[in-house]
Amino acid sequence: MNFIPAMRPALGDNRPAWWFVFRDDRLLVRFEDGTLVRPYLTDLSKLKSALIRKQYLGSLNGTDCYTAELTAEAPVPEDAVFKGLRQLFGAVDEELLWIAGRANQFVHWAQTHQFCGRCGRPTRDKTDERAKICVKCGLINYPRVSPAIIVAVVRKDKILLARSTRFRSSFYSVLAGFVEPGETLEECVGREVFEEVGIRVKNVRYFGNQPWPFPNSLMVAFTAEYAGGEISADESEIVTAGWFSAEELPRVPGKFTIARQLIDWFVRTQNRQ
Ligand SMILES: [Zn+2]
């Protein structure tokens, strides 16, 4: 993907552009011949006065990308509709979707940092970097990213999967949790797995990462080996957990998630044996 983040457009702001327009975390998309195609492109002249907290994101293959919110009162254009980002996976270009995820995080940040967290006065955009500065006390806030770990725990020929209380649907996934201040990523893996299911792990190894815009996580993925303990699920977070072989996997998350990449990695390692 050739996306170049930037603070402002290199060639002025009157050129055709991708517009990632949100309302309540939902993206404005357009139908073409009855088919959902892609985020709303270019001519939003009729909407312009109803767009607030406009931000430039950068350029994708030379085309400028902007994000903004549509006010609650403004009518939705006839050929467009607001959709949740999760509903769009598989329905639009993946690269545009990841920029939409990035856009959603900036929109969310702009919306929740209009006032200073220290003195309560209004903030304004800094001109030299993407940040909000308090007009009174000078406190600076950057877009927030919350690191989280996600881990595939393997015991011989089985993987640990759990159904989270967070998921409305009935799929199983690998364990995940937010990093706490002062903690290393590896310590977080050990703590989360022990807290959620009472299992000890060893040989924690980095696997990959994925920005996860719901609303502002960076998922850092690991693999780990079982080191001891019996499954005892924390009922506030886990509905049920168990060990699954590659041949008897339950319903798991979609292809676009790093959780699924971890599960697919496990299946590949089993097929090799
Ligand atoms: Zn302040």
Topology (elements, then pairings):
Blueprint: E1 3-5, E2 17-23, E3 26-32, E4 35-39, E5 51-60, E6 63-70, E7 80-84, H1 85-88, H2 94-112, E8 123-125, E9 132-134, E10 140-141, E11 146-155, E12 158-164, E13 175-178, H3 185-197, E14 200-212, E15 217-228, E16 238-245, H4 258-272
Parallel strand pairs: 2-6, 11-15
Antiparallel strand pairs: 1-5, 2-3, 3-4, 3-7, 5-6, 8-9, 9-10, 11-12, 11-13, 12-16, 14-15
Bound molecules: zinc ion.
Zinc ion binds next to loops.
Describe this structure in words.
By secondary structure, the protein is of the alpha+beta class. The protein folds into two domains: 3-112, Alpha-Beta Complex (Nucleoside Triphosphate Pyrophosphohydrolase); 146-272, Nucleoside Triphosphate Pyrophosphohydrolase. The protein contains four helices and 16 strands. It has helices at residues 85-88, 94-112, 185-197, 258-272; strands at 3-5, 17-23, 26-32, 35-39, 51-60, 63-70, 80-84, 123-125, 132-134, 140-141, 146-155, 158-164, 175-178, 200-212, 217-228, 238-245. The strands form three sheets. Strands 1, 2, 3, 4, 5, 6 and 7 form a seven-stranded mixed β-sheet that branches. Strands 11, 12, 13, 14, 15 and 16 form a six-stranded mixed β-sheet that branches. Strands 8-9-10 form a three-stranded antiparallel β-sheet, with no helix packed on it. The longest helix is centred in the middle third of the chain and has 19 residues, at 94-112. The two termini are 35 Å apart. The relative contact order is 0.13. The model has no long low-confidence stretch (mean pLDDT 90). Bound molecules: zinc ion (ZN). Zinc ion binds at residues 116, 118-119, 121, 134, 136-137, 139.
